[in-house]
Amino acid sequence: MSGGLTLWGPSMLPFSLEQRIEAAQAGGFEFTSVIPWELRRAEAGGQSLEEIRARHEDAGIGICLVDPLASWLPEFDPPAEIGEDDPLKGAFSAHEVFAICEELGVELVTALALFVPPVEADAGAEHFAAACDHAAEHGVRLQLEFIPGTGIADIGLAWEIVEKAGRGNGGLLVDSWHFFRSDPDYELLSSIPGERIFAVQIEDAPARPAENLAWESLHGRLVPGDGDLDLARFMATVPAGDRFVGPEVFSDELWTLEPAEIGRLLSERTRALL
Hints:
With 274 residues, this protein is of the alpha/beta class. It has a single domain, classed as Divalent-metal-dependent TIM barrel enzymes (TIM Barrel, Alpha-Beta Barrel), CATH 3.20.20.150. The chain contains eleven helices and eight strands. The chain has helices at residues 17-27, 36-44, 49-59, 94-104, 121-136, 155-165, 176-180, 186-191, 213-219, 231-237, 259-273; strands spanning 4-7, 31-34, 62-69, 108-111, 141-145, 170-175, 197-202, 244-247. An eight-stranded parallel barrel has the order 1-2-3-4-5-6-7-8, surrounded by seven helices. β4 (108-111), α5 (121-136) and β5 (141-145) form a beta-alpha-beta unit. α1 (17-27) crosses α11 (259-273) and α5 packs across α6. The longest helix has 16 residues, at 121-136.
């Protein structure tokens, strides 16, 4: 799998895996992604990873990504009140995440810097390189995602870490919401080699950030075209490359719709932008 139109899993966060497949089919998406905790929940309900993989294959929907891996940094320390099924937790070991990849036939994982202090570039590069080497043992690529308010908050630091790590299976995930809500450095974005950006996630937002940025990130993102972000310029600036691209819209409002309706809406808006 090298790339294609992707319905990122968090766009369907409250729904079941089966409903996510329904949405992906309705929108004509080629791929989707999965979160480790939801796989464990499905397994607890009696569905094996082998069955999950087969169901996606039967539906013609590839699983391109397991997201996230947050425990790659030694300072990772999620607060006790974060539930096991919270998408922020990511408290799975690299061994667990890469084992999931092998069972599902997935070759891409997202690394986040959640629940850690600000990461220093050299130390981050050292740990990212080690995580990439571990991933390579399982035939997995590792993409680093910058997120405002986390230990790696902007594209500048994320790219510095990836570049210093110097691993061929290490790259970046670029998310439009994170880009605009941090330091939207178009010049830097345009200078990154296209093959080092493994995936792009697209969503919109109001021009003015919410007072609680964490809430906006997890509940108040907008469907492409419903906000004020210059997504056309963003997509025109992202260097050309064969990668996974699609919407990742955490939205309480969106989730009031039926799965197929969500899939069609996100597909229409994303295709119009692309």
